[in-house]
Specification:
The chain is mainly α and 103 residues long. The protein has 2 helices and no strands. Helix 1 (18-50) packs antiparallel against helix 2.
């Protein structure tokens, strides 16, 4: 907490606007889209290796990689914003609670 130089008490935490939640949600949706797809392709590579599915000779792409990628992107786009907004709200609530306890 930042202390005010004149009063010695911690400065209040500014209320969160809807624009901040929107920004965090949109940014994390893009990150989840990319991360979910990459993780899913890694899972496709592992599943293909365990099931002895021959990868593409030219590119080395695993079997059914596109299906895994699409489902991974969908899951990542949904899960990443939910988790990041949950942590964002929890952090704000803790900061407000700590500020109210001290003030």
């Amino acid at each position: 907490m930042a202390k005010s130089p004149d009063s010695g008490s911690p400065s209040p935490v500014a209320p969160t606007s809807k624009a901040e939640y929107f920004g965090v949600g949109c940014f994390s949706a893009f990150a989840g889209f990319a991360a979910g797809g990459m993780i899913a392709v890694l899972i496709a590579k592992i599943v293909g290796g365990l099931s002895r599915c021959a990868p593409d000779a030219e590119t080395g792409a695993p079997c059914n990689w596109f299906t895994y990628m699409v489902f991974g992107m969908i899951i990542g786009t949904l899960v990443m914003p939910v988790v990041s907004l949950w942590f964002f709200r929890r952090g704000r609530a803790r900061a407000n609670a700590a500020n109210n306890d001290r003030g």
